[in-house]
Amino acid sequence: MARAAIGLGVRELALKADVSPNTIARLERGEAMRESTVEAVQRALETAGVEFIPENGGGAGVRLRKR
């Protein structure tokens, strides 16, 4: 959802996170990942303008950061 919200393709996000496009696809399917991989993707998304929202009773989520 975060990737689509900012208009990044799988290859673009993979490049920004320094992982393979296959890794992004596996992450999006919910497969288990190393924590360092998840953190790299999260940092890339945050740099691109995504804000991660912590669990607050309604579930964790994302939104676009105000510019």
Automatic annotation (TrEMBL):
Domain HTH cro/C1-type: 2-52
MF (Gene Ontology): DNA binding
Coiled-coil parts of chain: none
Xref: InterPro entries: Cro/C1-type_HTH (IPR001387), Lambda_DNA-bd_dom_sf (IPR010982)
Protein name: Transcriptional regulator
Organism encoding this protein: Mesorhizobium kowhaii
